[in-house]
Design brief:
Elements (H helix, E strand, L loop, with lengths): L1 E3 L2 E7 L9 E8 L2 E7 L12 H4 L2 H4 L9 E3 L8 E3 L2 H19 L4 E5 L6 H5 L1 H8 L3 E3 L5 H11 L15 E5 L3 H4 L1 H14 L2 E6 L11 E4 L5 H14 L5 H7 L3 H7 L5 H8 L3 H12 L4 E5 L9 H15 L8 E3 L13 H4 L10 E3 L3 H5 L3 H4 L7 E5 L3 H4 L3 H8 L5 E6 L11 E4 L8 E4 L5 E5 L12 H12 L11 H8 L7 H7 L1 E3 L4 H4 L59 E4 L15 H7 L3 E4 L1 H7 L6 E6 L2 E9 L7 E3 L35 E7 L1
Parallel strand pairs: 7-15, 8-14, 9-10, 9-12, 10-11, 12-13, 15-16, 16-17, 21-25, 22-24
Antiparallel strand pairs: 1-2, 2-3, 3-4, 5-6, 5-17, 18-19, 19-20, 21-26, 22-25, 23-24, 23-26
């Protein structure tokens, strides 16, 4: 601890599902209370900056509505009647129900379900140890990253890229498909630094004039799902006007001549008709990056959350290979560092890898609705799911096809235990609810996705009486379920952290002293100057969509997803998206809100006040055609269902596009149903994911 202005400062890492994984300085006001939270100034990526919602984390950790005691359902599912329980009795009940379910249907009827409510490796991933020990159904975690990661690695062969801190040394930063001001503020820290110190240009490509685009020198607003067309037209111009680096292409890429021939008819005029951009906009962007060697492509997740999202990511990434900007400091491309060698932890003990059974079926976590409603194609030949433990996620709010999720969770033959911090939409439908600690109340370790640091998050304050850690719940259930004798059980969080770090010169105490460790690869490795990650060392313009390598490839038992045969040989625009039609004339995206993070922070009063209410951004000209006034109550719907929102006129998007920002609690909506009523749970090609920004809808006055 350091002392500053009589306030003790503790050091931690932000646990939330954001690539920044900010290093934090936390004001400690007492053994169980915090004040403001600050970004660590001496961390080279965080650079003293943290988002406003984490800065006021005291509002969340000391919130009066935090869950404090185990609760057992006392009435019908979802009617809100609970009785308090001791921890011992609640865990006994959970184990009893799991054992009974297993006796009836076999072990695969139990489905431990989790995700990224915390990104701490111990508290997040320890549930896998229980899964593998008991041979419960496997968990294919696909919802967030799969479309983007698959498209990126199909090109590079590895999930890494230029050091993200190099944005500060760039002459042009292209922020593509991520509203960084809202979702990863540190991107802007380094981009703005380059503008101030080098006169760098900032280009933002997105589907609406969001907070990030307001910071841009060049903003390109295109239609959802058309990024591949823009990328192809840009590369067409680069070849046409001799701005392609042919020497680099010959040395480092698989088929540059084939790509150039393929792009011959992908003109700016062709792309303008698809994207809604003008020819002049496309050509100006192409010429800017074609004449700026130090161009840094910061590729986000949002633009890949379409049914053609992997193709879009690969196409945008391909531009950097055509310009050869990988060769320069401050140039190249970056999406995530999740695949760097420094992040290869030893998870054998934590996740129980040694007793993983390849014969146990996997279930797709994005398809929880079809799984819980017993869709044959979602169950992979196994029994129905009749028991669940849910940690670190809120599927009743965030998962696609919300009506199916609700129908499934309300099944009388399904027993659900939810371990949570607040009474979320998912917890409301549970049979047992257990109170959970928050990140400052337990030990954990974190790795960056948007940066290159391993950061320790030690316990800094005592939790209230009642909440227990994820690790505690897994350990206690293991005792009751007869597997606590297996390797990996019986260890403390610190012991697990040491086991994770044992392949490098780090342990809990060392990391606590130095706070973080920089794992950034050397320049040549990060920029692929020693070759790309494919066996031949080449960047692939021709991806192996059917069966090629990817960071999160489905197990063989699940096969390939979606219409893989329609994915293109070279970068292209492919119409796998939900195209607007006469019945559904609008395309809906469910973009992030500034003051929420997925379903987190929706309970804090400042975030609620700043977001006001669920609204639908609609172009004023579209509203006029529909006869809608600003603030009008409208019904937005498709074949999956309908929700009620209020209009907000916004001219910063294309005609025919509407946007609902933020994942509001379902209860914030008029009929108690949230925006994910409208999103689809079908698994996109080739390896799944959730195409939450790819929805055709109608909009009607109510």
């Amino acid at each position: 601890m350091n002392t500053h202005a009589k306030i003790r400062i503790g050091h931690s890492a932000c646990p939330h599902d954001c690539p920044s994984t900010c290093a934090l300085d936390v004001e400690l006001l007492g053994p169980d209370r915090i004040g403001r939270v600050h970004g660590a100034k001496d961390n080279s990526y965080t650079a003293g900056v943290v988002c406003a919602k984490v800065a006021r984390y005291a509002d969340r950790i000391h919130h009066p509505d935090r869950l404090m005691k185990p609760l057992v359902r006392a009435g019908a599912k979802g009617d809100g009647q609970w009785k308090e329980s001791s921890w011992e009795a609640a865990l006994d009940l959970v184990a009893e129900k799991f054992i009974a379910a297993e006796e009836k249907y076999g072990s695969e009827t139990v489905w431990p379900y989790f995700y990224a409510g915390t990104m701490g490796l111990v508290q997040r991933d320890g549930i896998e140890r229980l899964r593998h020990a008991k041979k419960y159904s496997g968990f294919f975690g696909s919802i967030c990253t799969n479309l983007a990661w698959t498209g990126y690695v199909m090109g590079t062969g590895a999930l890494r890229g230029s050091d993200p801190r190099e944005m500060g040394r760039s002459d042009c930063i292209v922020v593509w498909g991520t509203n960084a001001v809202v979702t990863q503020v540190n991107v802007m820290t380094h981009a703005i630094k380059a503008r101030k110190e080098r006169g760098a240009k900032i280009v933002v490509i997105d589907i609406y004039e969001n907070a990030t685009m307001k910071q841009a020198d060049m903003g390109l607003v295109l239609k959802p799902g058309t990024d591949g067309a823009l990328a192809c037209a840009v590369m067409h111009v680069l070849f046409r006007e001799n701005m392609a680096d042919r020497a680099y292409l010959e040395k480092y890429t698989d088929d540059p001549k084939g790509l150039e021939a393929h792009l011959a008819d992908k003109t700016p005029e062709w792309a303008a008709a698809i994207t809604g951009l003008t020819v002049a906009e496309i050509e100006a962007f192409a010429r800017l990056i074609g004449t700026t060697k130090k161009t840094f492509f910061r590729l986000g997740y949002g633009f890949a959350r379409q049914r053609n999202g992997s193709v879009n990511m690969h196409a945008a990434l391909s531009i950097a290979a055509v310009t050869g900007c990988w060769q320069y400091e401050g140039g190249g491309a970056f999406h995530s560092n999740s695949g760097i060698s420094g992040f290869k932890f030893n998870k054998d003990l934590l996740e129980g890898d040694r007793y993983r059974d390849p014969k146990v079926r996997y279930l797709d976590h994005s398809r929880i609705g079809p799984v819980l409603t017993n869709a044959e194609d979602a169950l992979y030949g196994g029994p129905p799911v009749t028991a669940m433990l849910i940690q670190n996620t809120n599927p009743m709010n965030v998962a696609p096809e919300q009506r199916l999720v609700r129908q499934g969770l309300l099944r009388e033959d399904l027993f659900t235990c939810v371990h949570e911090q607040f009474m979320t939409d998912t917890a409301k439908l549970a049979d047992v609810v257990l109170p959970a600690t928050m990140f400052l109340e337990h030990d954990d370790v974190y790795k960056g996705g948007g940066n290159q640091h391993i950061t320790l998050g030690p316990k800094l304050i005592e939790p209230p009486v009642g909440p227990r850690t994820n690790h505690y719940v897994i350990e206690e259930l293991a005792k009751r379920l007869g597997v606590s004798h297996l390797p990996g059980f019986g260890l403390t969080e610190k012991e697990h952290i040491n086991a994770l770090l044992k392949n490098r010169d780090l342990d809990f105490d060392t990391l606590r002293e130095q706070r973080w460790a920089d794992m950034q690869p050397d320049f040549e490795t990060a920029h692929f100057l020693k070759g790309f990650g494919h066996p031949d060392g080449k960047f692939r313009f021709k991806p192996q969509w059917n069966g090629g390598a990817a960071p999160n490839k489905p197990p063989k038992s699940m096969g390939i997803f979606g219409p893989v045969e329609q994915l293109p040989e070279f970068p292209d625009h492919v119409d796998l998206i939900e195209v607007a039609d006469a019945e559904h004339p609008f395309r809906l995206a469910t973009s992030p809100a500034r003051n929420y993070l997925n379903s987190s922070f929706a309970e804090t009063p400042v975030s609620q006040a700043k977001e006001v209410r669920p609204e639908l951004l609609i172009h004023p000209d579209d509203a006029e055609v529909l006869g809608l006034a600003e603030g009008a109550r409208v019904e937005v719907g498709n074949r999956r269902g309908e929700v009620v929102l209020h209009t907000k006129f916004f001219a910063g998007l294309k005609r025919g596009v509407v946007i609902a920002e933020g994942i509001w609690p379902n209860s914030a909506h008029e009929r108690g149903e949230g925006i994910n009523v409208l999103t689809g749970s079908d698994a996109p090609a080739p390896y799944g994911g959730a195409a939450v920004h790819d929805n055709k809808v109608w909009v009607r006055a109510t």
